[in-house]
Structures are given as C-alpha cells and as structure tokens.
C-alpha cells in the first residue's frame, strides 16, 4: 500500500503539469518554452539532491555504460512524452488533458508482455514474461469509460479538429511514458535509485530541451519574468517532486507487474487535483453533467484498482 500512497501523492504534484502548462499557454508562452524549461529548470535541483547524496559519479557511469538505451528510454519517459502533453494543452482544457492522460493506465497493462518479472521456481529465481492482469484491465477499462464520457461532453463545445489535436498527442504520450519508464528500470536494475533515475532522465533530455529553447526563442522571442516564475513552479512540482515520488513508487513495485499497474492507476488522482487547481488558478467552472459523471467513474475505478490484489 505504501507504493500506491506514494503514487497518489505524486499525482497531486503531477497535476501542476496540466494547470501551470495551461496557464502558461493562456499567457502566450509557446509550447517549446514550456516543454524545455520544465526540464532545464529542474536540472540544478535534481543535481544538488543527487550530489549531496554522493551518487552523481555512479549515475554518470551507468549512463556511459548504456548510453544509447538511456538516450532512447530516458527521452521517451522524459521530454519526449512531455512535448506531446504540452502541445495538447493548447487545444483542450487542462482537466480534460489530465483525464485523457489516464489512458496510460491501460497502456501500462497492455505493455506487460514486453517485460519479464522474477519468479521463484524450484527454489530458483527465474525471469518469466509478464502477462496482462485481466482483472486490472477490466477495472482500468472502467476508468477509460469515464474518460470517454468526459470527452463526449466536451465534444459538444469543441470542433473535431481541436478534439483530435488535444486527444491524439495525449494518447501517444500515454504509451510512451510507461514504456520508457519500465524499459529504463530494466536498464537500471537495482543499482540506480529513484533520485538518480530522475536526474538521469533530465540529463539525457537536455539536447532536445536546448533545441526547443532555440526554436522557441527564434519564433516567439524571450519569455517574461512571470513566465519564468511559472516555469520554475512547474519544474519544482512536476519535474522534481512528482517525478522523484513516482519513480520511487514504481521502483518499489517493479518486480510485481500487477502492483506496478496499481501504482500507475493512482495517476488518475491527478484528474481531481487538476479540476481543483483549474477552478482556483484558472477560474474554470466545476465539471457538470456528463463530465462530472466521468470524473466520478474515474475516481471509483482508481479506488477499486488500488485495492485489487
């Protein structure tokens, strides 16, 4: 249960991704700046944490040893998935983007056969290919129904083009994030902890982040002071606190794909936190009708999934 609680805690801080990103987009800052600063500004904080723990050297050795794997899976679970989320926030309300992100729960389950888990057979530990947890898939599909209901309600006030632009990038990122995260855990094994993995993902995301800064500066000019402050808040909440806590939760559950799926399902909690944040900071209206029903379904599904054995 500790891994599930930590996962839920991370969802609260991850909700800043959708609220602050939407706030920055409303203020006119481009998605290139938003996506890049989330990682660039998080880097010094993560570095200091790992530095004072005396773990920077071992992290750099691990990255050097499996450089290509770190660049691939680290970027997928880092700036790669986040670029798509940032782009989608320009076309849909923050709470709707957050709800669509819950597809990652289904994605994580469907990806299970791509991974191996240790099992004890005849007093020997062997690796066995994972299976899709049917019970969790049913409950997670229940959550997905809630997401679809919310999408249907929002479709009444949005064009087909806006819906697709807001939904498709999120759907793609929902698969990239668990894929990259789980593959990177395989690469790291038990030698790299959640603090190091958070810093490592941020480090390998720097080349793309710098390219985005150049593009954002060329197309939209420099950002304002208030934009910088918002980006700093985003980096601290989402890039540092949320990432470390979520990585810590998934690390605790990595040898049990069913528990790992339960931890990933706790991210449905960010829908509730995003709704609250949108009302407080974006002066948004409280979801009504089908949207409210969809949120209730998501919450019920998340609770059931968390307690399912």
TrEMBL record:
InterPro entries: EmrE. Keywords: Membrane, Transmembrane, Transmembrane helix. The keyword Nuclease does not apply. The keyword Transmembrane helix applies. It comes from the Bacteria. The chain crosses the membrane at residues 35-52, 72-92, 98-121, 133-152, 158-177, 198-216, 228-249, 261-283, 289-308. This is EamA domain-containing protein. It comes from Clostridium thermobutyricum.
